[in-house]
């Protein structure tokens, strides 16, 4: 759908620009929110007639937003959440949580103004962009920690995630907890050899067979050697005679 923008829209254009957008986006958001008009002869004339008024209204909103940004930009807010030793949250900090936190601090911000691509799922300091106006934004920091004390330590620069320390330990723990059932589909087909190693029944049978063959080979070699010795002794006796 072709529309006329009544204010600056990120990635689309500025006030008065005619752009093409998907029908659903126009019908469900831009048109009902008063951010655009359908691009036709009548609306073009309407826009030009109201342009001065629209620009004045936009400037007023921009000024108000800038005032909020001056108070909000650079602020840090603490969110206490339960988390594991590696810092992974058991829940998350989403846009609605940030809106609630800002509301408790006298900032009336809508969820759509919080630019958070995905919920925060690990403790630490996280920068969050707040879009106050198409031309005004502010950045806050969410200090997500397991306690107020840890939040203070994080703010001082301490890393409490301990990722490196626990990654190896977790892997080692996982390996040590593996059972025979985790490794073999049929545990009845495995045994522990005399050295404490897990081996399959096939390997044991093969090893046994190899042992039997080796024993047979040794017996055959011994018999052959005995035969050779007997034959040598007979030849020696015949030579003496």
DSSP helix fraction: 40-55%
Order of secondary-structure elements: EEHEHEEHEEEEHHHEEH
Low-confidence stretches: 165-201
Strand tally is: 11
> Which structural class is indicated by helix and strand composition?
alpha+beta
Under the CATH scheme, the architecture of the largest domain is Roll
Strand order of the largest sheet: 4-9-8-6
**Count the helices. How many?**
7
Largest sheet features: 4 strands, mixed
- Straight-line N-to-C gap: 123 Å
Strand content: 15-25%
Principal-axes geometry comes out as elongated
Cα-atom radius of gyration: 40 Å
CATH topological fold name of the largest domain: Ribosomal Protein L9, domain 2
Mean pLDDT: 79
Looking at this structure, what is the CATH superfamily of the largest domain? Ribosomal protein L9, C-terminal domain
Q: CATH class of the largest domain, please?
A: Alpha Beta
Q: How are the SSEs placed, and which strands pair?
A:
Elements: E1 2-5, E2 18-20, H1 23-30, E3 36-38, H2 41-72, E4 76-80, E5 88-93, H3 95-104, E6 114-115, E7 120-122, E8 124-133, E9 136-145, H4 148-155, H5 163-176, H6 180-183, E10 190-192, E11 198-200, H7 201-240
Which terms would index this structure?
Ribosomal Protein L9, domain 2; Ribosomal Protein L9, domain 1; 7 helices; alpha+beta; 241 residues; 3-stranded antiparallel sheet
Describe this structure in words.
The protein is α+β, with helices and mostly antiparallel strands. It folds into three domains: 2-70, 3-Layer(aba) Sandwich (Ribosomal Protein L9, domain 1), CATH 3.40.5; 76-165, Ribosomal protein L9, C-terminal domain (Ribosomal Protein L9, domain 2, Roll), CATH 3.10.430.100; 179-241. The protein is built from seven helices and eleven strands. It has helices spanning 23-30, 41-72, 95-104, 148-155, 163-176, 180-183, 201-240; strands at residues 2-5, 18-20, 36-38, 76-80, 88-93, 114-115, 120-122, 124-133, 136-145, 190-192, 198-200. The chain has a four-stranded mixed sheet. Strands 2-1-3 form a three-stranded antiparallel sheet, covered by helices on one side. A two-stranded antiparallel ribbon has the order 5-7. It starts with a strand and ends with a helix. The relative contact order is 0.08.
